[in-house]
Write a structure and sequence with these properties.
Blueprint: E1 5-8, H1 12-24, E2 32-35, H2 39-46, E3 51-53, E4 66-69, H3 73-81, E5 92-95, H4 102-109, E6 115-119, E7 129-135, H5 141-152, E8 155-159, H6 165-174, H7 176-193, H8 198-219, H9 223-230, H10 236-245, H11 249-268
Parallel strand pairs: 1-2, 1-4, 2-3, 4-5, 5-6, 7-8
Antiparallel strand pairs: 6-7
Helix pairs in contact: 6-11, 7-8
Bound molecules: 1,4-dihydronicotinamide adenine dinucleotide (NAI) and (2S)-3,4-dihydro-2H-pyrrole-2-carboxylic acid.
The site of (2S)-3,4-dihydro-2H-pyrrole-2-carboxylic acid has 4 residues, from α6.
Length: 270
C-alpha cells in the first residue's frame, strides 16, 4: 500500500491537523499513515481510521507525496533522519516545528528536497486554525497547491516570503491560542471576584470572547470601531478600558509576551 501523506508525530498539533484534514474530506484515512511511538496516541489516531506504526521503520513501501513532521523541535533533527531515504526525491516535507529552519532539514534530507515550513495552531482541529506557510525553492507549484488546499481545510492560510518572519508568526498565531485561553481564565477569575458563581463566570467569559471574535471576523469592521461601539462616554466600559489601556498597559504586556515567544523560537532553531 502506498500512502499519500505520512504524519510523523500525532501529539497535540499533529492530531489537531489530522482531525481537521479527515473531517473536511481533504484527506481520506486509507491515504494516510501516522508514525507515533506513544501507544495511546496511536490508538487515538486509529480511531480516525488511519493506519499507524511506531516509527519510520513501519512505513509502508512506496513514495509518499508528503511527510508532515509534527514532533518537538528538540528531537526533530534525529526524527527527520529516519526519513532520509525520501530526501532529494519526489516526496515533499512539511515541518510544523517552532524555530527549526529549512536549512536544518536540507542538511539532513539533502539540499534538493522540497521543504515547507508551516506554523499552524490548535484551532485547526475544528477548521478554525491559522496556518502560515514558507516554502523553499524546490517545492513544485502542484505540491504547494496540494499543501495549501490541505491546510485550508484546517482554517485560514497565509504565506510569508522571508523565513525569519516565521519566528514572529509562531509568537503571534502559533502560541496565540494559549494567550486567549489564559484571557478566558483571567476573565473568569475576575467575574468570580465580582461575585458571580463559577459556572456563570465561565459561561460569560467564554461566550464573550467567542461572540466578540466572531463579530470582529464576520462584520469586517476595524476592532477599534467595534470597541468604540461598546464604549459609552463616561460609562462602564470606559472605566474598564482606562485600566487596560492607560499607559498602554495591555499593549505593553502583549508586546513583551510576543517578543519573549519570538526570541524562544529563534533559540529553538539553534
Ligand atoms: N501545540 C501547539 O499548539 C503547536 C505546536 N507546534 C509544533 O508542533 C510540534 C509538536 O508539538 P506538540 O504537538 O505540541 O507536541 P506533542 O508532544 O504533543 O507531540 C509530539 C509527538 O511526537 C511524538 N514523537 C516523538 N518521537 C517520535 C518519532 N520518532 N516518530 C514519530 N513521532 C514521535 C511524541 O510521542 C508526541 O506524541 C512542535 O514542533 C511544535 O513546535 C506548532 C504550532 C502550534
Ligand atoms: O509552545 C510551543 O513551543 C509551540 C509552538 C507554537 C505553539 N506551541
Amino acid at each position: 500500500m502506498t500512502v499519500k501523506v505520512v504524519l510523523v508525530g500525532c501529539g497535540n498539533m499533529g492530531h489537531a491537523m489530522l482531525a481537521g484534514w479527515l473531517k473536511s474530506g481533504q484527506l481520506i484515512p486509507s491515504e494516510t499513515f501516522v508514525a507515533e511511538p506513544n501507544t495511546e496516541l496511536r490508538a487515538r489516531a486509529e480511531k480516525l481510521g488511519v493506519t499507524t506504526g511506531a516509527s519510520a521503520a513501519d512505513l509502508p513501501a512506496g513514495t509518499p507525496e508528503l511527510v508532515v513532521l509534527a514532533v518537538k523541535p528538540q528531537v526533530i533533527r534525529d526524527v527527520t533522519a529516519g526519513y532520509k531515504h525520501l530526501g532529494n526525491g519526489q516526496t515533499s516535507f512539511v515541518s510544523v516545528a517552532a524555530g527549526t529552519p529549512i536549512a536544518t532539514f536540507e542538511e539532513v534530507l539533502g539540499d534538493k528536497t522540497p521543504i515547507i515550513r508551516v506554523m499552524p495552531n490548535t484551532p485547526a482541529a475544528i477548521g478554525k486554525g491559522m496556518m502560515v506557510v514558507y516554502a523553499n525553492a524546490h517545492v513544485r507549484p502542484e505540491t504547494k497547491k496540494f499543501v495549501d488546499e490541505l491546510l485550508a481545510a484546517s482554517g485560514a492560510v497565509a504565506t510569508v516570503d522571508d523565513e525569519k518572519l516565521m519566528d514572529a508568526v509562531t509568537a503571534v498565531s502559533g502560541s496565540g491560542p494559549a494567550y486567549i485561553f489564559h484571557f478566558i481564565e483571567a476573565l473568569t477569575a475576575a467575574a468570580e471576584h465580582a461575585g458571580l458563581p463559577t459556572e456563570t463566570a465561565k459561561l460569560l467569559a467564554m461566550q464573550t470572547v467567542y461572540g466578540a471574535a466572531s463579530l470582529a471576523a464576520e462584520s469586517g469592521e476595524e476592532p477599534g470601531l467595534l470597541r468604540q461601539q461598546v464604549t459609552s462616554p463616561n460609562g462602564t466600559t470606559a472605566a474598564a478600558l482606562n485600566v487596560l489601556m492607560g499607559d498602554d498597559r495591555l499593549k505593553t504586556l502583549l508586546t513583551e509576551a510576543v517578543e519573549a515567544a519570538r526570541l524562544r523560537s529563534i533559540e529553538l532553531g539553534k
